[in-house]
Amino acid sequence: MTELHGLYLEDLKEGMKASYAKTITEADVVLFAGITGDDNPVHINAEYAEQTMFEQRIVHGMFSAGLISAVLGTRLSGPGAIYIDQQLSFKAPVHIGDTVVATATVVEINEERRRVRLETICRVNNKVVAEGFATNMVDRKPVQ
Q1: Radius of gyration of the chain (CA)
Q2: How far apart are CA 131 and CA 67, in angstroms?
Q3: In the 3-class helix/strand/coil scheme, how is 29-49 assigned residue by residue?
Q4: What is the rounded average pLDDT for all residues in the chain?
Q5: Quick check: 93 and 114 in contact, CB under 8 A?
Q6: Which helix (H) or strand (E) holds 74?
Q7: From the CB of residue 51, how many other CB atoms can be counted at a distance below 10 Å?
Q8: Angle 24-30-35 (CA atoms, 0-180°, nearest 5)?
Q9: How many CA atoms lie within 13 A of 56 on its CB side?
Q10: Residue 1 has pLDDT above 80, yes or no
Q11: pLDDT, average across residues 108-132
């Protein structure tokens, strides 16, 4: 690992894991809605959201996916890796003020194709709110 490069394929082992935690704020939700254009009122309108099955505003599901991206892009495998796919199921709502912990765990390494498959899980207070699998393309160590 170097200052500007994360882990290399040869550094990774099945079972390795890394996490990133974020407490979601009102500003996060409003900015996410503005950046993505997803201004569904269940996310930004308290009166509307009170009338839904959630009974309050919920955070965009893709916000959790963004936290998975933070794990993959900064910790495992980190800078230099390319996030090439994600399968994700949303299991429970996230609310403003919740702390989401996104965790990625290496489950398979394909050295020939330079692919690393990772289990991805987001939790709030140990409750799974999103889960799935991602694939990263990871560099080999440079030849010295």
Answers
A1: 17
A2: 12
A3: HHHHHHHHCCCCHHHHCHHHH
A4: 95
A5: no
A6: helix 61-74
A7: 11
A8: 110
A9: 7
A10: no
A11: 97
pLDDT band (50, 70, 90) for residue 94: very high
Which two structure tokens, joined as six digits, stand for 126? Answer: 């140990």
User: Residues of 102-134 as b/e, b for ≥16 C-beta within 10 angstroms?
Assistant: bbbbbeebeeeebbbbbebbbbbeeeebbbbbb
pLDDT at 3: 67
* Lookup result for tokens 């390319």: 82
Structure confidence at residue 2 as a pLDDT band (50, 70, 90)? low
∠ CA 114-138-69 to the nearest 5 degrees? 130
Assign 17 to helix, strand or coil.
Answer: strand
